[in-house]
Amino acid sequence: MTDFGALTHELEHTPYRDLRHHLAKLVTYSRMSADDLAAGGRRASWSDLTLRPAARFWREYLLHGSVFDGRLGVIHAGVSAAGVFLKYAFLWERGEQRGA
Predict the structure, then answer these.
(1) What digits encode the pLDDT tens for the residues 71-91?
(2) For residues 73 and 61, is the Cβ–Cβ distance under 8 A?
(3) What is the pTM of this model?
(4) Considering the domain boundaries, does residue 5 fall inside one?
């Protein structure tokens, strides 16, 4: 394995152009995750739709340090929680469509 050494500058990683782009990717990834869960036989429950997003928000906000980023930290934690909600909402929707 080749050793390229240490970075000499801070690495900037910006995977989204703006909030609209971030949300579009969030919907896409949430659908893909719901499809993966459904393929494994998973169905969404009420706790998946309520407790998991809340837990994600607090994990991102407190444990991962978004609390130190001010308003942007709240937005980051909120968008992360929204992604979890959407994943399980799409999974729930798939279950409802199959049951109908």
Answers:
(1) 999 999 999 999 999 999 999
(2) yes
(3) 0.81
(4) no
